[in-house]
Request: fold
Amino acid sequence: MAESNVRKAAPAARTAAVKPGKPESRLAMVRRARKINRELAELYPYAHPELDFENPFELLVATVLSAQTTDLRVNQTTPVLFAKYPTPEDMAAAEPEVLEEIIRPTGFFRAKARSLLGLSAALRDNFGGEVPGRLEDLVTLPGVGRKTANVVLGNAFGVPGITVDTHFGRLARRFGWTAEEDPEKVEAAVAGIFPKSEWTMLSHRVVFHGRRVCHSRKPACGACPIAALCPSYGEGETDPEKAAKLLKYELGGQPGQRLRPPAGYPGQAAAALGAGAAAGANGDGELG
Ligand code: SF4
Reply:
């Protein structure tokens, strides 16, 4: 699987799709953007959220914990956390020091513990112990911003949403979809290019590509299957052999981030914390 995907990434892939130096019309950009989405769908038919979760509460907690760390590190931390505090009521009643100690591996553990205690109490007191399925309710929870709310809505409630994290923002700019830096402006720009029905899966595909191929510091342009459609081709390594060595996760023959990946994931599951896996290591210290 990984190999055939990489083989598709011939350097040759430069064609007339992007003409350097020539201004591109809005229509041509939208067509090219939608083609990128289709190609990413072929490349990552198994794209999915890379946080392990069983229900909306677990996804909400895992997403809050994922700030400034890797999904792998969160996935290695949450099994103990969810076993001890399976419901908002349980978590709201946690001893802060005990909670902090459990989530310590995810970093910023004091602030994150405060958010988890606050949002659990708010779920218990204001929402009957259930995670609400509306953006305007979710963003009232402590530690929950628009990005976290969109992740929860898209993946636990099936509400279409664009999740602009560091990977999505970087790739949207490299693809020439927008020049905006502000995540909300990126979200609005991308929402104007794609139909709503595509938003959630588009988000997963773009983030998958950012984590595996189009890295922040060393994009693997020479091994990138969508090079022909990318105006930023050449920002990274263009030598096919050197670029292939930069590929990560299943494309690089390495474990993924989920301890319990969904059916259809072609790579290996991540190892539990302390099981010998290099937690959070994905080659160049980039947030996974
Ligand atoms: S910058 Fe390079 S790696 Fe990223 S999408 Fe464009 S061609 Fe691919």
